[in-house]
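Thread: quick sanity check before group meeting

JM: Hey all, I'm pulling together slides for Thursday and realized we never actually wrote out the predicted structure for the chain we discussed last week. Dropping the sequence here so it's in one place. If anyone has concerns about the input, flag it before I start.
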Amino acid sequence: MPEMPTPAHHSVILGEDADARILQVTVLLIAQREGHSALGHVVGLYTKLELNVDDRDAPVTYFLSRLRGEKKWVIDAKFGSDGYPHYAHGFGERTSAIRTITKPVARVLDDLALSLGLAEAIGESVPLVLTAYWPTLRHP
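JM (edit): ok, ran it. Output follows.
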């Protein structure tokens, strides 16, 4: 299965005109994953990324998932630049109100998933279709 050889760095613009901010996105990991949640057996994409606005000293860390058939990236966990856990759920948990990532960041993740061969179909409002998935020994 394809892996990210090194972290992927991207800059995205949030907002418009005088309110626009440049957000530095560092994708540390993106992979197919499976697990168990309150929904039962779940399969999808998992990513760990850091977001940093230019005027901050340290990035905020996010763990996101997008399950097979879902149209958006959902925030599973968010840790502040100081490590404080603002929000923490396991991979693919959908038992409470879901929080999604901003569209420009989602586009970065969608493009990476396609370029690494992790997804056959993915995009804004496009249900996730994974490429062939082979369970590992740890995830039969």
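AS: nice. The chain has one helix and eight strands. Residues 8-130 form one domain.
JM: adding both to the slides.
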